[in-house]
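Dear support,

We are seeing what looks like truncated structure output for some complexes. This example has two components. We would appreciate it if you could run it in full and send us the complete token output so we can diff it against ours.
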Amino acid sequence: MKSYLNFFKLRIITNLQYRAAALAGISTQLFFGFVYIMVYLALYESNKGVTPPMNLSSIVTYLWLQQAFFALTFPYTKDQELLNMIKNGNLAYELIRPQNFYFKFYIKLIANRMVAAFLRSIPILLIGFLLPEPYKLSMPSNITSLIIFIIALLFACLLVTALSMIMHLLTMYFLDARGVSSAYNVIADLFMGGIVPLPFFPKFLQNIAYKLPFRYISDFPYRVYSGDITIIVGKNMLIGSFIWIIIIIVIGLIISKHALKKAVIQGG
Amino acid sequence: MSYIVVDGISKTFKVSKRSSGMKAALKSFFKRNYVYVDAVKDISFSIEKGEIVGYIGPNGAGKSTTIKMLSGILLPTAGNIKVNGFNPFKDRKKYVSNIGVVFGQRSQLAWDIPAEDTFDLLRDIYKLDDKKYQKNKEELVKLLNIEEIIKKPVRTLSLGERMRCEICASLLHEPKILFLDEPTIGLDAVSKKIVRDFILKINKEKKVTVILTTHDMMDIDTLAKRIILIGKGKILYDGSLKKLKTEYGSYKNIIVKTDDTIKEIKLKGIISKKKIDGGYNLIIDSNLVTVSKVVNYLSKYHITDLDIDNEQIDDIILKLYEDYKI
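Here is the complete output from our reference environment:
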């Protein structure tokens, strides 16, 4: 365990060097935050009299949280180092270490996400809180929802990383998994509520979305924060999220075992 | 039971194959053609503790594949491997603490930081005791003469310097077995010598079992008492280098410096005669004709200089390849 923790620390230190990437990320996310909010403002303005599926302050909060933790919950961030290693065969050196291959890279991917999110989220959240209505990011509805939100966000990160790991492992079979990963990206982004929040979905799509693991990545944490998902439902969803994490990790482990059995070390 | 037992292992790879060009590319989009390539076919050998074994063969013979199977990276398609009681692939996590591997064509050192930092990371990965690690590191660094080198970023190192760091990195956890896959590839004479001396030393002092693949016959000559020759995935020769030399090394090379013209030599056992600058180059088979007989025969000419060489191991290997048609 200690060696994994050390590795985690090392990754954090390495990633903290990339200041320019963080600044670029912050400005992009701010821009998208404003644009999305304006779109929803216009939508709500032109549909007065219709009861919207989410109230305005919930949706604004949802959008800001989504932008703030974008790096933490984006469906697929590829790790070039791991992909290169598989492609050029340097994986060989990883396999002669007394470590579990899957968990080593799982930790690496998580560290990448956490650092990126840490650097981006704080300024975005601060700006969000300081903005005037209707652009304002609201405070959590109460302390319990805040706690559930934090745990849910952590779980979301564990879950999305486990999914990401599967995408990386598929490279061992296809060498170039761009096709599979872009298909996954679209599906995951849609069903986690990344494009449009799930309450806006037609009923039949909602039913599908609620059965898939993706909603735990962003729909659940961001809506429980504003109270759009109640505390009682939230508590149950934490259990659901946890079960999905276990399932996806186990699938990843099985794939990694199988992939290594069939592995070919590229390039002699 | 021997230390390393390899029992009838084979490895088959599935390789997709298509001709070049647009048409073939389109065709392969719908239907892939696969060929099965036997990289290694039914290989068996055993190695005792403390041996240095040279594993040689032409490119694509299956040397690296065997090393990868021995180090637990690849799973053999058939057959069994037992190393010190471990099954390399199955017990990989436990097993790999016992071995060190150097892939001459790859790097385990982080590119942008000094090698010493990678060493420290390896200490954590292998969970080494700090005192022991420091002592071991100092010793290796001194032996390989890289005290200054390990403080420079790896990207600034020459190939020879880097290779010495790679070897050091593979031995920090005091493995009992060392696999070297072309450790001297691309190195200059000085670096090669350092690497060779080092391998001999750790074999002698620490009783490390060494298996190395190489194309450099000098490596084999200085290091390995036993060689395993492999071609097209099969073992062609397994035995001492000395025996190989006496069996296949009966040819001798004689360089005669003379201004005279030597006509045909009417002796049995003259393999070839070539005119070279200022004389002749003769190759004789010492099993058929003695050197003195040849020299005697030549004495009727005015000879300014005479040079007799044993056959180089390179030529022996080439001859072996020819004999086995590989």
